Amino acid sequence: MKEIEELKKALNPSETLFVVDAMTGQDAVNTAKAFDERLNFNGVVLTKLDGDTRGGAAISIRHVVNKPIKFISTGEKMENLDVFHPDRMAQRILGMGDVISLVERAQQSFDEDEAKRINSKIRTNNFNFDDFLSQLEQVKKMGNIKDLMGMIPGMSKAMKGLDIDDDSFKPIEAIIKSMTPKERQNPDILDGNRRKRIASGSGRTSWKSTTS
Questions:
Q1: Which of 26, 90, 103, 130 would you label with 139, given CA atoms 20 to 30 Å apart?
Q2: Residue 93 region by backbone torsions, left for phi larger than 0, else alpha for psi between -120 and 50, else beta
Q3: Is 50 exceeded by the pLDDT of residue 88?
Q4: Pairing mode, if any, of strands 81-83 and 43-47?
Q5: Domain 96-201, CATH 1.10.260 — does that match?
């Protein structure tokens, strides 16, 4: 803290943000208070805020240091850094979800022209595995899967205690990529022999295990 305090005096930054791990709970509050007494920072960035139970840290820090929480992060990439909205956090803590943030992420990740193309293919019953694979890629760009599901009203309670792996789409992607271009575009041609080959190519022991 002494070194950072000296850096602030030497550099005279226009703004100082305190980054804290939300998983540390009460320790995050104590740490924020100690740093604020030495640095008098302007705001807080909460990381690892990928669960509703950690919303308490946000409320406590705001109360103790009386500084705004400006950003929150739910992952390790820049796209996982979001502006903090207290009303949305309150809704998530209460299990009401955060539909607005979910829509905003979708708007940032999905291409409008691509969405129209997919919609047209679904309406005409021409949606194939290539289109499905494209949609999976778009969803992955939106961020942490568990965090996204938590934005849906009622889902936080339903997912309590569940561990959703961000790599859960990989087996599905492996299956589709083990298909030939013709099979992706015409799923109706998939017979027993083709299914067995696809299962083997995607690292599965049988077709049943690939679809379960």
A1: 90
A2: alpha
A3: yes
A4: unpaired
A5: yes
Domain 1-84 matches domain 96-201 at the CATH topology level = no
Residues 6 or more apart whose CB falls under 8 angstroms from that of 2 comprise 38
CA 21, 157, 211 angle in degrees (round to 5)?
Answer: 100
Task: Say what percent of the chain tops pLDDT 70.
Answer: 70
Q: Which of 156, 160, 159, 158 is CA-nearest to residue 92? A: 156
Cα–Cα separations (whole angstroms), residue 70 to 46, 83, 117, 145, 150 = 8, 6, 37, 23, 21
- Residue-range domain boundaries for the chain: 1-84, 96-201
pLDDT higher than 70, residue 86:
yes
CATH of 1-84, one of 3.90.1720.10, 3.10.310.10, 3.40.50.300, 3.10.20.600: 3.40.50.300
Question: For residue range 96-143, what is the model confidence (pLDDT) as tens digits?
Answer: 656 666 676 676 666 777 778 888 888 888 888 988 888 888 777 777
Is the pLDDT at 3 greater than 60, yes or no? yes
**22 dihedral zone (left: phi>0; alpha: psi -120 to 50; beta):** alpha
